[in-house]
Amino acid sequence: MTPATTIASGFRLALTSSLIAALSLTGCSKSDTTPTPTDSKETAASAAVDKPAKTIAITQIVEHPSLDDIRRGITEELADNGYVEGKNLTINFQSAQGNTATAGQIAKQFVGDTPDAIVAISTPSAQSMVASTTTIPIFYTAVSDPVAAKLIDANNKPIQDNVSGLSSQLPLEPQLDLIKKIKPNAKTVGYVYSPGEVNSVALLKRLQEALPKRGLKLLDIPANRPSDIAMATRSLQGRADIIYTSMDNNVASAFEAMTAAANELKIPIIASDEFSVKRGATAALGVNDYDFGRTTGKMVYRVLNGEAMVDIKPEVMNTLTLFISPQHATAQGVTLTDELTKDAVNVDTKPY
Question: CA 204: distance to chain centroid?
Fold first, then answer.
């Protein structure tokens, strides 16, 4: 081998070694900086070490998927911000099982426990809590009309300094537009509701004012208990062309019974939350329950982190998403148009 050949061979060897070293360093750098889901969980857990221990109490009027998903969003938002249940956060959860008297008892128990914050999911639970304490921070959520519920005034000012929260004051006009798109020839809208729920009564009044302006009639059927929902729905046979429901906890507790009756009668159900469509409604125009919980969780975090309640103003979440189920639509005697479905979330195909 000539000297020139030796030098060239040595240069190629040196260059190859340099490239290998560079590539090795690049590979190490990439793997060291790319976050993984495990890293995220470990970060939240390590952040919990630096946070003082806190206790929150959560109550809801009844357990059903919509409210449960809101609660999940709250706890996961707090965990992502360093308050992890079982580490530095104690959560006392109580359901009133649909009973307003039980909601009052839970409120008294929570006040006696003096948690750092209380979260009341649903209007009846929020009303019971606000009536029970003026000192412990209370966050209402899943409340459609906090003014009618006497949680805030018309100027968005809480009725008490210890109250704030998140509401879903969904505009009614887009809901009525959806009714006409799904059932263009509809003449009568059936509304099964709980006369004991302030939010449902407030919606009844709004429907009574708005529907005649659209050339529609309202057929309202009161149902005091979840066990009354199926019978109330069947009473719409031959009298209503479409059913509208929104944020009524009795209806949500017995939603499968409502959808079974609607399927028999071939009357489509229009709701205002994603879970109702998953459980049997034809469509819903409303907010995502889990996202609603995450936003509520951000508010709760602020008070746990030392912020004064008077600085945490009530918020409204009313970004609307259209959720549809062509499968449920067929069961209820309607076909959804391509124009309606093109920008909608199809729960029949969406993975969960």
Answer: 22
**End-to-end CA, the chain:** 68
Tokens of 159: 């009725």
Distance in angstroms (rounded) separating the CA atoms of residues 279 and 260: 10
**With 0-12 CB in 10 A as exposed, 13-18 as middle and 19+ as buried, what is 118?**
buried
Give 134's DSSP letter. Answer: S
Cα distances (Å, whole numbers) of residue 77 to 81, 129, 160, 256: 6, 23, 26, 30
Contacts of 11 (CB under 8 A, 6+ apart): none
Give the rounded percent of residues in the chain with a pLDDT score beyond 70: 86
- What average pLDDT does range 113-132 have in this prediction? 96
76's CB contacts (< 8 A; 6+ apart) are 293, 294, 297
What integer is the mean pLDDT of 88-93? 98
For range 264-283, the mean pLDDT:
95
Long-range contacts of 329-334, Cβ-Cβ distance < 8 Å, separation of 24 or more: 329/182, 329/268, 329/282, 329/283, 331/263, 332/262, 332/263, 332/266, 332/267, 332/268, 332/269, 332/282, 333/266, 333/267, 333/268, 334/182, 334/183, 334/268, 334/282
- Residue 250 CA to residue 196 CA, distance in Å, equals 10
pTM of the model: 0.74
